[in-house]
Amino acid sequence: MNNTTTSEKKNVKRNAAADIVCIGLSAAIIAVCSQIAIPATVPFTLQTFAIFTVAGLFGAKRGTLSVLVYILLGAVGAPVFAGFTGGISTLLGNTGGYIIGFVFTALIVGIVSDKFNRKAVPMIISMLIGLIVCYAFGTAWFMFVYARNTGAVGLGTVLGWCVIPFIIPDLVKIACAFIICNRTGKYVKF
């Protein structure tokens, strides 16, 4: 009985250490991908790609905690957000809602990854739903902050600024994240 208890304690410690390493590395990957900007008419980063991949590979717990660590690092001033920005002012600014929306995206993708063992159709649908939730949360936040700071702006205008230019790149990111999760997922145990 005592050997089993000791063995269980070692497994718990090993799993906790693995969680910490996984979450820390995943937060770092999100931070690095946030700095990779693809030049276009409206430049876009690989933040959402990293979030889809991390949540798809590591599930709801590790994926969501990774995003929370990333956001907390940025909130305390580490330059982890796009364009090497950081600080609470970024989160409270016009686009801060999209960053907070990443938490919901990771949670949705992670839950589906856990429940359906990374099966193709549920994973792709979860990534699409996660993206839509992020868009909705971020757009509502943008409209609120913009109206407070500058003046009222219509939904169509905000969608034209903050969502429509990103739809095709985000769909490409979903496809790439799904391929990575599908091909490497068998090597990741959670």
Structure report:
The protein has 190 residues and is an all-alpha fold. It has seven helices and two strands, in the order H-E-E-H-H-H-H-H-H. It has helices at residues 2-35, 47-75, 88-92, 96-116, 120-149, 155-162, 167-184; strands at residues 37-38, 44-45. Strands 1-2 form a two-stranded antiparallel sheet. The longest helix has 34 residues, at 2-35. The mean pLDDT is 93.
Portion in strands: under 5%
What is the overall number of helices?
A: 7
Question: What structural category arises from helix and sheet content?
Answer: mainly alpha
Mean pLDDT: 93
Read across the widest sheet, the strand sequence of neighbours is 1-2
Principal-axes geometry comes out as globular
Q: Report the major sheet.
A: 2 strands, antiparallel
Distance between the termini: 27 Å
Low-confidence stretches: none
Q: Quaternary arrangement of the chains shown?
A: single chain
Helical amount: over 70%
What are the secondary-structure elements, in order, as H or E?
A: HEEHHHHHH
Q: State the total count of DSSP E strands.
A: 2
Radius of gyration, taken over Cα atoms and rounded to an integer in Å:
18 Å
Q: Gist?
A:
76% of the residues lie in helices and 2% in strands.
Q: Could you give the topology of this structure?
A:
Elements: H1 2-35, E1 37-38, E2 44-45, H2 47-75, H3 88-92, H4 96-116, H5 120-149, H6 155-162, H7 167-184
Characteristic terms for this protein:
mainly alpha; two-stranded antiparallel ribbon; single chain; 190 residues; 7 helices
